[in-house]
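REQUEST
  id: r-88c1
  op: predict_structure
  target: Glycosyl hydrolase family 92-domain-containing protein
  payload:
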Amino acid sequence: MRYLTATPKVATLLLASSQVVASATNFTSLVNLFIGTASGANGGSGGNAFPGAAVPHAMVKVGIDVDTAPRQAGYISDNSSITGISLMHDEGTGGNTNGGYGIFPLFPLINCDFTSCPVGIDARKTKRAAKTDAATPGYFTTTFVNGIKLEATSTRRAGLIRFTYPQAATSRHVVVDLTHDLGRSFEGGTVALDRSSGQVQLTGTFLQSYGTDNYTVHACYDFNSPISQNQQSIVSTGTFQSSKTSAATITITPANTSSLSFPFSSSATATQAGALLSFNSSTVLVRFGVSFLSSAQACANAEEEVPDWDWEKVMGDSVAKWEDVLSRVSVDVTKEDPTVVELLYSSLYRAHLVPANLTNENPYWDSPYPFFDAFFCSWDTFRTVHPLLSITSPREWSQIVNAYIDGWRHQGFIPECRANTKAGYVQGGSDGMPILGDFVQKYASHAQELNVPTDDLYQALVDTATKTPPDWYRVGRQNTAWLEFGYIPTAWADPSGATGLPTREASRTLEYALGDFHVRQAALTLNKSTEDVDTFGNRSMGFVKVWDPNVTSDGFTGFSQRRFANGTFAFSPPDACSPIDPTPHSCARGTDNNVGFYESSSWEYSFFAPHSMATLIKLMGGNATFISRLDHYFSKGYFLAGNEPSFAIPWAYHYANRPDLSVLRVRNVIFKNFNTGIGGASLPFLIIPGNDDSGAMAALLAFHMLGLYPTPFSWQLLVGSPLVSSYTITNNLLGTKTTVTVEGFDKSTLVATPPSGSKVFVKSITVNGVANPSVCWLAFDDLIGGGEIVIEVDGDASAAAQRGCGGSDPTSLNTGGNRTGTQSLPDSL
Ligand SMILES: *[C@@H]1O[C@H](CO)[C@@H](O)[C@H](O)[C@H]1NC(C)=O
Ligand SMILES: *[C@@H]1O[C@H](CO)[C@@H](O)[C@H](O)[C@H]1NC(C)=O
Ligand SMILES: *[C@@H]1O[C@H](CO)[C@@H](O)[C@H](O)[C@H]1NC(C)=O
Ligand SMILES: *[C@@H]1O[C@H](CO)[C@@H](O)[C@H](O)[C@H]1NC(C)=O
Ligand SMILES: *[C@@H]1O[C@H](CO)[C@@H](O)[C@H](O)[C@H]1NC(C)=O
Ligand SMILES: *[C@@H]1O[C@H](CO)[C@@H](O)[C@H](O)[C@H]1NC(C)=O
Ligand SMILES: *[C@@H]1O[C@H](CO)[C@@H](O)[C@H](O)[C@H]1NC(C)=O
Ligand SMILES: *[C@@H]1O[C@H](CO)[C@@H](O)[C@H](O)[C@H]1NC(C)=O
Ligand SMILES: *[C@@H]1O[C@H](CO)[C@@H](O)[C@H](O)[C@H]1NC(C)=O
Ligand SMILES: *[C@@H]1O[C@H](CO)[C@@H](O)[C@H](O)[C@H]1NC(C)=O
Ligand SMILES: *[C@@H]1O[C@H](CO)[C@@H](O)[C@H](O)[C@H]1NC(C)=O
Ligand SMILES: *[C@@H]1O[C@H](CO)[C@@H](O)[C@H](O)[C@H]1NC(C)=O
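RESPONSE
  id: r-88c1
  status: 200
  body:
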């Protein structure tokens, strides 16, 4: 069990310290759930990670909620007051600082008269006793200063909560809160209490945390525990309601059967309402179920998933599920560096919390396909979360891919940022496209077995790449502009009447280009027409159209810029919206963003054409300039480790034949930005929150540590120098085990700046004894193909610089792309 410790363990200092993980045998015991839970005060971000109880990809994420914002995931590791333990949460998101979900909290009380117990949210809130928060995968506990202990464990849609009251308590109660989600956004609902069955059913409508829509959710609490040792019996029941947010006292009306109903109101109400139950026993075991269909279904879910109220079974099953997921990347924990191991397994854990599996809980349409929520947002997750699933977990990944396709099937477009079951805001392109394109490239030959209809997948891509939804701020893209100009013009009034936020023109252009590349890749893989391949291939070079060769910054020439419909460029300072922007700019989605880039600068986005980096190198003036431009980008401070557009850039040296420089840069990024403290990523200079972003940061760190970077559109992964001496990847579709061993592994390289001569450079790679054509990349099929991959490392820096990729560069569309054989696209399109 991992208890919350206040002192961050800084990775660079840990090599000398002794840690407990070395003796652990199970990967679940290595997970530190509190990484990334620091308070996000002072404009920074603690990661917004969720440390409560959940199974992999769970719908239910049960944990405690603090009363101070920011609190995106409910929990914050500081000593804020606690308002309850609630049933659903997001993981590592930005958006509304009050947080999403946090629905139907319970709150245990002692020593009050039934009719005057402090049931209101301000009256009841309390602090936790020091050093009592603890969590392991599948379990969370804390203890209030008054001695009441809270524990939780869960299944996909249900679970158990246990309150243990101090022996000296004179009375013991549980508040069931109908109205307070984290966003305080209650718009109506009902609570129904039935003493004889011991059941409380709830239905509430709340606002989503990222977007403007609302959603309705249901829960069921069972208080008649049949566990005989528990000897738990309900003594009194009643309900309460008040129209005031901060009512000092709210009177409880005793009743054995009672139902309160609050009609829908389109603005959030201040209503406080719920039920109160009193017990005779010092332990109260509560079973719960959640549903998006009905409160009866919520009760049925509890009955189905927790039939015996068996705590050990529920928790054991959850641990086993996590053990299965975590063991798909296995290392010998007795051999590897303990901090690296803790970071690796904590990251793998967080990378599998979302998307959330709402299969059989889709309130909007009937479908035989899976339904998933918390695509929050695909812009965050397409780069690392999905590629990680592609390596180990095609069975789960194919279900999520099917949910994306089903979104298109029923709503016309691939979903982008589904949050609380409804469409949220679109940030850039439609980044479900890279996810579907990547899937078909990697698993087309297994699609039937995985029940993914590839014709539908392809049509979803084509429709999203060509049709324009009425409001492309919710889903899809502004294809009216894209198809007419081949870029997104600035200051252009869309004559079609389609609406959306007309900002982020330059970065949307770059992302639309990548999206179309995926249609091309899918067309190639699925043997679609040459015309499709060429049409989408040509469009994917659109990033060149926003390249202004005349802009100079810090001595470097040529930058991505906004462009008017008449072809003239609109200038934005290339450092605008960078971490060192000298002038305040608005850099989000709003109409006050007059820079043209989303949450990042032209300096950074000018490196964004992941499918044709060779083109960018040409545009920038060749390999040497590209390399010094990258060096300058890092030394000047344009890089922001916690932000998605920065993710791939430490690896970009690979494309200029200098993988040795990537290796050093990645070490530097890891050891300067990540540690096992509650802050997760310690980034004091953040201008944009470095949240865990639905596991995106976690998956990124896992890749960095395994010495791999996924290019989610290519059959290759970039290869670097792993931080462990060996790891074994299990693919849960093929049943293969591939062991990657680092020959000459050198622990002294596990620092921000490896000492001169330490063995950090990749010298050669063999795949099952056969020399790999490159030291820059590995074929995806080899990584999941089973057998032995050996990465030989050495410490000779000048030999490494000389060697480069060793003969074969990572692919770029401009130099051949994938599966084309002969076609190479001109960079002047
Ligand atoms: C929080 O503060 C209270 C006093 O207000 C103290 O008793 C308690 O130990 C603190 N808890 C933690 C987790 O620091
Ligand atoms: C919220 O819910 C109500 C009732 O279900 C519905 O009429 C309304 O359209 C929903 N959306 C918004 C944005 O209020
Ligand atoms: C509820 O039921 C209990 C037990 O049957 C009874 O003693 C109590 O008076 C009832 N209370 C109310 C408010 O009806
Ligand atoms: C609670 O009440 C039930 C029913 O009267 C009884 O069986 C049980 O022993 C009581 N438990 C305690 C701890 O008093
Ligand atoms: C490790 O996991 C296995 C299977 O899930 C379980 O049987 C065993 O008790 C666990 N060991 C430890 C040390 O937790
Ligand atoms: C999602 O839930 C369904 C229904 O229980 C189950 O069959 C499926 O395996 C789950 N998938 C994941 C990824 O959790
Ligand atoms: C596409 O064509 C190639 C070559 O004819 C064939 O090997 C492959 O199976 C085809 N793929 C699909 C998905 O039909
Ligand atoms: C793609 O671009 C090339 C080069 O400009 C051009 O020759 C070809 O006709 C284009 N193909 C399609 C389908 O647009
Ligand atoms: C760049 O500047 C040159 C020289 O002033 C000019 O001829 C050219 O049109 C400019 N290019 C663009 C794309 O603005
Ligand atoms: C293009 O349009 C912009 C914005 O209306 C204008 O400032 C610029 O002068 C135009 N350029 C040309 C060459 O007409
Ligand atoms: C840049 O490096 C790449 C990758 O090794 C190589 O293919 C290319 O020829 C180099 N370009 C120049 C202009 O040297
Ligand atoms: C395309 O991908 C296949 C593996 O799927 C690889 O064998 C082939 O060499 C690639 N072609 C190019 C031109 O990169």
